[in-house]
Amino acid sequence: MNSDSDLQIAGDILEVPHLLQPVREHPSTVAEFAGLARAVAADPGQWRHLVRYDATTRWYHRLRTGPGYELWLLSWVPGQGSGLHDHGRSSGVLTMLDGALTEHTRRGTHTLTAGAQRAFPPGYVHGVVNDSLEPAVSLHVYYPALTEMPVHSTRCAGGGKTVVAGQDGSVRA
Ligand SMILES: [Fe+2]
Fold first, then answer.
1. What domains sit in the chain, N to C, each tagged with a CATH number?
2. pTM here?
């Protein structure tokens, strides 16, 4: 008995359903999207057989969709990169599945290796490139689903040309 508290649980707590949080079918918070991505990363049976590498163009595959969000699988052969871009009104979580990528932002450069995650808000500007000697695979959650990826000049602090995601795989990241 805990004498420091007046609250005690009497009986079986699982018989009090109104006290339990229902398990949500779909994620809706950054932490839940990151958790979903980690769960996919930990289960290569969901994605490894789908991965293709294409030296002529960036390869990507829509792995899953849910209410207002999408998961994309991307591969990067050495030398392939996204260029500097943002993600319009979408937030995102980038999760490394295999290999290593380098992310360039205005605040610095980050090396992302398997298991690393980067969560970013709408308007976040970065460029991602595989400057290693091995192919890389990454998983990208976008919420809401990605509809545009404005390209940014490396010399320009803001603005940029807007391109529609999905029509040009060379910029998806
Ligand atoms: Fe990106």
1. 13-172 (2.60.120.10)
2. 0.80
